[in-house]
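re: ur question from yesterday

yeah so i grabbed the chain u mentioned. its 214 aa long if i counted rite. heres the sequnce exactly as i have it in my notes:
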Amino acid sequence: MDGTLALYGLLALTTLPPLVPNSALLVSTGVLASEGRVALPLVLAIVAGSAFVGDLLMYLAARRFGGPVRAWMLRRPRRRAALEWTSRRIRRYGVPFVIAVRFLPSGRIVGPLASGILRYPLRKYLIGAGLAESLWAAYSIGLGYLGSAAAGNPLYAAGIGIGVSVLVAATGTAVQWGTRRRALRAQAGRRPPGEPPCTDREEGDDQASSTASV
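ran it thru and got these structure tokens back, copy pasting raw so excuse formatting
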């Protein structure tokens, strides 16, 4: 029983912050749930709930300190491209994109920050983030749970689940990389012929003015 409580606590602690890799832990917990060693509904509630709280804290921080957060995001080309790309789509698609961005690499960071900087309505963000984290928890735990039920072997199930997670992450990374490269090339194409590339500071100043409404 003590070990089970410790596992629940570990799930909450590793899911709350956005930068802790815990895919293997989630898949393994799904395997344990399929064997009846942990309660599946409680695991899903803990994982989705702690991730939701982490998202909400980032959103509120970015909403409260929008200026400094925006300046930090605009300081580097990759962060700037991610912020602009995400902000445009949140404005255009709203809640559906708040949900979708959660499944992209780094989306758990840039999604809440962009939403907070934009001062996206709190009620809508709560709906989007709640649905996103519920789906993400079901997906992450489900890989281990269903893999174990199908393979009948915990080690195979864990391997299948982690492999699928890596494949999905790699696909999302490739999509993001391609999109950001196109955005950077488009920015470069707008410079007058012969003008040297902007420095990080100059680019940050230009983009700060172009995203002043963010």
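noticed a couple things. The CA atoms of residues 143 and 161 lie 5 Å apart. also The longest helix spans residues 154-189.
anyway ttyl
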